[in-house]
Each structure stands twice: as structure tokens, then as C-alpha cells.
Amino acid sequence: MAGPSKKQGKQRARGVATAGAAGEGQAARPRNYGRWRALSLLTVYLLMAAHVIHWKLAGRTLAPLELHEVMFTLELGIVTAGFLFMAAAFLSAAIFGRFFCSWGCHILALEDACAWLLGRMGIEPKPFRSRFLRLVPSVALIYMFVWPHVKRITSGGSFPGFRIQTDAEGWASFATSDFWRNLPPVSVALLTFAVCGFAVVYFLGSRGFCAYGCPYGVLFGLADRLAPGRIVVAEGCAACGHCTDACQSGVLVHEETQAHGRVVDSACLKDLDCVAACPSGVLSYGRARPAGLLRSLRREAAAAADDGLPSTYAFSPAEDLAMAAVFVPATGFLAGAHFSLLPVPLCAVLGALCAWLTVMCVRLLRGQDVAVGGVLLKRSSGMTGAGAALIVAACLATAGWVHSAALWRDELAGSRALGEVQRTLESTPQGTVAAASLERGIALEMALRRLERASRLSLFAAPQLHWQLACLHGLSGGQLDGATARRLLNGERGDQDRVLLEKRLHGEYGGQQGTAPSSEGDAQRAIHARAGLAHLRQITRPSRS
Asked: What pTM did the predictor assign?
């Protein structure tokens, strides 16, 4: 029985059925690994819930296992529970392959759930390939883990050395009584789940976040290159292509197994869907020579289309450049605004969506027949309702990152003015520092004006912003002396200083029980004071990512 041509294999990689292929008419075996994987991913969320319940009951528990804490270790030398968890996951990927991504990632669980729901509605998310967006995870990885070292080296700093902190020192201990210390606010977490787990699936494909937003996947992909655990093929493969059709990561399984006897593409997440889909049962997970530097056939096909097939890229070079022109500022402003409260992977995905929506709008305005995911956006007779909705979404997305740009500008100007205030405090270690003595109050007034406007523009409550405003209001009203304010603004945690500021600000601006604020401005200052005091530790943390 003859296998399909290379052209047919590439067509299948795009999800197109090929007539006359070997094995046509045969029913692929049920995906008997799907339920086990769903149970594994559900267990992840059950363990997360049990973790929170244990903290509520015991008052103290293991610190949340956050992968972004690798930044703290690499930049500050602080060994955290999240770093050890990431190290264990990386080691497992270097031995067994990327099982963690498909069997233990909470974001991929949402992606698969969304893809399943869309499938129930008759919508099959199609992955698309972009020359530019495929570089986004690597850029995010460099920004998160390499750029801080570059800044430290260029500034003449040295690595502080590895160390472990206790819970009394703040936010990096292995056990903690403050479970939410390094976690984003609930609103940010829900936005991350909604965008990375759901919205990105429809627009960028069922594994869109894995391909275009996850910096950790880059590390796991490098580890997978070293792994002896691989998808392998036995004799008797008919190259029917069922395995490639079943792969949600866009791996050309049947071509790679024919060429190498195993899958070498580091995008393979070892979800075993291809193994379950093989009608002859010759695919399996087993030991094989690591892929090393072997190049995946998927990338070769994307780099040079042949046999008269169109390019596997979804966008022209000009459209990719346009996407880059939108992505770079959108992601930069989103990541910089709200005092870097939004995780970097979320900002990268939001930037990618903004770029995608912009290019699709251009296509709608210039093209005749435009469709996305089987939904017709524009026909020769005019725009459809779905097309109009996409234009509205693009306008909202553009307004969102432009708003972030305005917010970032105020935060940056306010922070610079705050730096002037701090330098003045450094030169005045003793005595009361009133607004008039702070270089005639210009820097203090500028810092208050810009940061208060940033507070009004902000969509999320950034603890660092509240804390800075609380201290500035204390200085403006003369409630703080220079030495105390300097310690507080520099993030030095002294219980006596906190109590002093709390008493002065809380009472001064109507925070006492049964006392109403005397004015709207005082009420706003009281809000900043309470919020800032509640999140004192945030001032000393690196940017969340």
C-alpha cells in the first residue's frame, strides 16, 4: 500500500483531508489517553485548591510554586520553592520529554478545554504560522531571564550569591503564612486565564499560548532536545497521516517518523494523541537517540515550501512586518504599565492578539473574501456581522494598549519625580521635611500629580503605586520626618515605622472608626494609605512576570 506524497503530507499538516491516502476509510482508534490526561490536568487544579485550603486551616503552608520565581533566583540569588519546582520540571523534560507541558500545565488545561468546547460548537481552531510571532517566546525569555543580568553587568554590579530567606524576611521563603504574597491580584489572574487559556485558542490555534506566548516552553524545548524519551515508530507504518492530523501542536509526526524513526520536533508535548490515533498501533513512547541539533521537518517545510505548494506561513512578509510594528510597542507598554503588574507572558499574548487583529483589519479593508476559523468576515457583497465585530475588537485592543502607554508615561514621570524626592531626603537625614523644603515642593508636587493621575487611569490596583502615594501624602502633609520617609520609600521594613505611618495617615485622613473623611481628597488619601500599608513588601520585589 503506497503512502502519500510529500505534498499530501504537508496538506495534512494544515488539517486538510487528503483523498487517496493510505488508510482512508479506516477509523482511527479512540484517543484512550485523552481521559487520563484530562484527569491529570484536573488533578492539578484540585491540588491547587487543596493547597489553599491547607493554608486556610493551618495558617502556614508551602509557598506557591510559581515558575516566574526563577527570576528571583537568577537575578537576586534567592533560592525559592518555585525555582526548585522549575528545576525539577526542566530535569524531567531533559529525560522524558515535555510531559509536564501536556500533563501538568494549568494553562494548557484551559487551552484544551476551550478547544474541546469550540469543537462541540463545530469550530475547529486552526494554528497559523508567522515568521515574527514564533520568535515572541524567545524574546520574552531573554527579557525575563537574561536582560536583568545584562543590566547588572553593565552597571558594574556583581551576582549576590545563592541564599535562602525566611518568612520573616518577606516574600521568598519556602513556607509562608502569606499565601498570596507573590501571586497577582485575582483580576489579573482571571484576565490571564481568559486570554491565555481561551481567547488565544480561537485566534492563534489550540496551542496558541504554547507557540506564541510561553517563555518557559522555550526552556523545556531545549531540554527536550536532550531527552532520550521520544515518540518512536515500529515497522509496519503506512504513513497514513492520522498521527499528524491528531497532533494539536502542528508536528509532522508521520514525516518525522519516516525520516528519523522518531519525532525530533521539540514542539512535541508528549500528549500521546498521535499514539492513540495510529490505526496500526506502530507508534509508541519509548527510548531513542536524543534529537540534538536535528532540525524538525515542520520548520524545514515552513522555511522552504516546495512541490508547488503555497507557503506554510499565514501572512506575507509585509504583514509580518506590520505585526511586528504593532506587537513591539503594544507589548512594551502593557508590560511597563501598572508598575509591571501584568505577567510578561500575558503581555506577550495580548501584544500578539493586538498585532493579529490589526493585520486582519487591513485585510478586511483591502480584500474581498476574508474568513477566520471557518467564519466568513467579508464577502464580495460587503462586511458580515462577524467582520464588523472583529473591527470593533481591533479598535478596543488598540485603545487598550494606547491607554497603557498613557498610564506608563504618568507612572514613569511620577517615578522620576519620586526619585528627586528620595534624593532630597538622602541629603536631609534629620528634621521634618515639609513640601516647601523639598526643592520648593516642585518634585513632590510633580510626583503626587502624576502618580495620582496614574491611579485614576489604572485598571488594576498596583500595590507599589498605593504605597508610594501613601508615603508622598505623608510627606505632603508633614506627618513624616525625612529619616522615616527615606526608610519607607527605600522599602526598609521596620514595624515601628509602619505603625507610625499607619497612625498618622489613617487618623489624619478620616480613617478612624466612626469618622468620615472631611473631603473627597482626604478620602482618596485614606484609600491610598490603607492599600499602601497593606502591601508594604511589594516595594522591594522584582517585576512580576
From this structure: 0.75
